[in-house]
Amino acid sequence: MLLKIIFFTLLFLMMVIYLLRILFAKKYFEKIKIDDRRKIDQKKYTVIQPILSGDIRLKDVLMRNIKNLSEMNFLWLIDKGDDEAERIVSEIISEENCKERIKILEMERVPQDMNPKIFKIKESLERVQTEYMIILDDDSIINTKRIDELSMYEDIKGDWLATGTPITMEYRASGQNLWQHL
Q1: Do residues 141 and 178 lie in contact, with contact meaning Cβ atoms separated by under 8 Å?
Q2: Rg (CA), the chain
Q3: Three-class SS string for the chain?
Q4: What's the pTM value of the predicted model, to 2 decimals?
Q5: Residue 182 above 50 pLDDT?
Q6: 128, 75 in Cβ contact below 8 A?
Q7: What distance in Å separates the CA atoms of residue 170 and residue 139, rounded to the nearest whole number?
């Protein structure tokens, strides 16, 4: 009987904590509502993307970000010898208004003891010439309806970090990701 009381008490407390989390999250997001008139200056941002071929949607995803973020800079990190990625990137760069905004960095083989994405990003950081950077997977599309929320952090002195990750594999399989739902 005592175990049942403890179980139901803990269950009740977990439910209360869960509801409090929802309430506090709701209050937080109401508090940070952004002024729709404040836009980021896209020219102050560089999107860093390690790119690997193999995803049949690669060109479409990259093109959507390029078109949706018409003034933002891009730094694409491609493995030397990834002919398919090089072909896709060459096709995109030939598009109007792309050549000036996209820089390609061909990467040497990543040391075996290193995480490939971390290694590539670390090697590319010194090439970023803008005030801000966005590190993005090559299968993610930034939600342009929400990108201007970054403006609320731009006045912060010092470094800051905003993150976004895909919620579940179903989003990737369906061609959607968290950035599209924010």
Answers
A1: no
A2: 21
A3: CHHHHHHHHHHHHHHHHHHHHHHHHHHHHHHCCCCCCCCCCHHHEEEEEEECCCCCCHHHHHHHHHHHCCCCEEEEEEECCCHHHHHHHHHHHCCCCCCCCEEEEEECCCCCCCCHHHHHHHHHHHHCCCCEEEECCCCCCCCCCCHHHHHHCCCCCCCCCCCCCCCCHHHHHHCCCHHHHC
A4: 0.70
A5: no
A6: yes
A7: 13
d(CA 110, CA 118): 10
Distance of alpha carbon 26 from alpha carbon 22, whole angstroms: 6
For 144, the token pair is: 């342009």
Q: How confident is the model at residue 175 (pLDDT cuts 50, 70, 90)?
A: low
CB < 8 Å & 24+ apart, contacts of 10-15: none
Cα angle 74, 177, 145; round to 5: 65
pLDDT tens, residue by residue, 26-38: 887 776 665 556 7
Q: How many CA atoms lie within 13 A of 167 on its CB side?
A: 11
Length of the chain: 182
